[in-house]
Amino acid sequence: MQGVTCCQLWRKPLLPAQVQHLYRWLSTARSAPALSPKALPFEAIPSTGRSAWLNFYRLWRTDGFQNLHHAMDRNFQLHGPIYRENVGTHHSVNIMLPKDVAELFQTEGIFPRRMRIEAWAAHRQLRNHKCGVFLLNGEDWRSDRLILNKEVMGMVGVKKFLPFLNEVAHDFVTCMQRRVSKNTRGTLTVDLHSDLFRFTMESSSYVLYGERLGLLEENPNPESIQFISAVQTMLRTTLPLLYMPLEFVQWVNSKLWTEHVNAWDVIFKHADKSIQNIYQEFCLGQQRNYCGIMAELLLQGELSLDSIKANITELMAGGVDTTAMPLLFTLFELARNPHVQTLLREEIKAADSQGHQDLAKLLNCLPLLKGAIKETLRLYPVGISVQRYPIKDVILHNYHIPAGTLVQVGLYPMGRSPDVFSKPERYDPERWLKKEDNSFKALAFGFGSRQCIGRRIAEMEMMLFLVHVLRNFKIATVSKADIKTVFRFILMPENPPLLTFQPIH
């Protein structure tokens, strides 16, 4: 029942335990259809070129890695809805239509696998750290994931940490009001890029560790600022490491590898300090109220301390930029679409008038706001693709794809395709409220049982942030032009936009 309630809040997708039950039912209900003998061979799939290392060299020389989302979009326009790609050590089949993703979902099995980031795994091995669910596969992944789901994805766990997110969002607005009051114009025009990093880190730390870092104060903790810098360095150095053998990188470009390892070391050091504080209090047996996800995992005693450390550190590292960027893009789109702002503000006002004390019930009364976040992630997905390895052969567009092939779903091209969305260039949150079939169209957090483990934290954090901001400010921007984006392992603006905040009295 816990999983069903969570699904009612966001409607989709199912929790892993429910998905696994569905898999077992399907396996007994019907056997897999035989592959068509008329299917074209794998080699017939349109390709971007046979020479993987020549393709890599071209991307490297032209700084094309920062424009992978645009390159993927062009390739779909050139080759159609399916093509093969070879870049360095990376070999994949790329798809973009929701119906193809639905077919892929049927072949992922109960232990879904996505592309392994070898550089991250190598750091864990080098430093003798355990891997969390992001890097694990098979039964190890499944056992950890099912335990984590109760505190991170299920509605009972979500309700516990919602007040923490709400407190930080309220404090952020208070901080903004203080800054506005110091301006004689009565407004504040600002590049909110770094402020959003501090906000998301403050929120993540509070939810995971149960402690505030003071990042919204005028003089934030230098160690926390160092952590943010380390996360950004880790993401920046990850991208080129995806396509090259690590041994080659360590030999040819040791600086890149050293930067990557040092960044992860800072991330783990910061996490370890917070973890030790909680663990010491836990060992003392002090009576506590709810004090964050890690404390709950320790109380459950179902995961080893090393596994808890690994998973909490991954959640912390993934919860900063990957939430800050969607918030920045959402504020920009609301600033240049004031009519959407007005509709959202009216929805929030109507929800407030119902007097909900339960934050989950309040958020459940804001379908348009949920649609606005989906619309932002359609146009600006944090990760530009989702990967799976089918456990059985599959036919897509009459091409035979063998089991074990890396298949990538192009999220950026899908979100901007007129074959998938009507008027895709238009920011229209209401499109998600219509009765048309939106299955496998909102995939920014992945799909199935291997969807992003931090999904609920991110969704609730973004919703509560926007609720507090829209209650208190009108947002405007001088530039109405489309924002230019670059891919640095996550999608981000090339130049952060300037936004103007005008208090609502």
TrEMBL record:
Tagged with keyword Transit peptide: yes
Molecular functions (GO terms): heme binding; iron ion binding; steroid 11-beta-monooxygenase activity
InterPro entries: CYP11_CYP27_families, Cyt_P450, Cyt_P450_CS, Cyt_P450_E_grp-I, Cyt_P450_sf
Residues noted as binding heme in the record, renumbered to the chain: 452
Keyword Lipid metabolism in annotation: no
Localization per record: Mitochondrion membrane
GO BP terms: C21-steroid hormone biosynthetic process; cellular response to peptide hormone stimulus; cholesterol metabolic process; cortisol metabolic process; glucocorticoid biosynthetic process
Identification of the protein by name: steroid 11beta-monooxygenase
Organism of this sequence: Andrias davidianus
EC code: 1.14.15.4
Similarity-based family: Belongs to the cytochrome P450 family.
GO cellular component, one term: mitochondrial inner membrane
Lineage: Eukaryota, Metazoa, Chordata, Craniata, Vertebrata
Keywords for this protein: Heme, Iron, Membrane, Metal-binding, Mitochondrion, Monooxygenase, Oxidoreductase, Steroidogenesis, Transit peptide
Main location: mitochondrion
Cofactor annotation: heme
